[in-house]
Write a structure and sequence with these properties.
The chain is α+β, with helices and mostly antiparallel strands and about 120 residues long. Helices cover about 25% and strands about 20% of the residues. The protein is built from three helices and five strands. Strands 1-2-3-5-4 form a five-stranded antiparallel beta sheet, covered by helices on one side. The site of adenosine monophosphate (AMP) has 11 residues, from loops. InterPro entries: Histidine_triad_CS, Histidine_triad_HIT, HIT-like, HIT-like_sf. One of its GO terms (molecular function) is catalytic activity. It holds the Pfam family HIT.
Length: about 120
């Protein structure tokens, strides 16, 4: 039984297609299907299912750090280290989380609007 019954679990298991742009032992990075910036890549844990950031435990600290560093490495590889970029993790309803397998959004490639304004 695989507990990661989310669309991202299916991407990890290669059951559905994705444009994978980054992979290491722990992290998979793929293009967001509905990009919100010229570059919009999602970084997810490959081997551990954590539904939301609120479900993360102290023992997940290294893995969550790896998501952030994978995004930074990819951004550097693509040449965004000087112009900059944004990383975001949405947690549950008010943040608009729709896929319950933690993921870090990397947004880059243009000046980004401000964020966090209540709708
Ligand atoms: P969130 O709203 O933070 O849960 O982000 C989920 C993201 O996953 C959204 O930006 C979606 O566009 C993206 N998404 C959903 N399904 C897919 C898919 N099959 N391939 C790539 N990105 C996806």
């Amino acid at each position: 039984m695989n507990e990661n019954d989310t669309i991202f679990g299916k991407i990890i298991r290669r059951e559905i297609p994705a444009t994978i742009v980054y992979e290491d032992d722990d992290v998979l990075g793929f293009k967001d299907i509905a990009p919100q910036a010229p570059v919009h890549v999602l970084f997810i844990p490959k081997n551990t299912h954590i539904a939301t950031l609120d479900d993360a435990k102290a023992g997940d600290a290294e893995l969550i750090g790896k998501l952030v560093l994978a995004a930074a490495e990819y951004a550097r590889r693509e040449g965004f280290e000087q112009n900059g970029y944004r990383v975001v993790m949405n947690c549950r309803g008010d943040a608009g989380q729709t896929v319950f397998h933690i993921h870090l959004h990397l947004l880059a490639g243009a000046p980004l609007g401000r964020f966090g304004t209540p709708m």
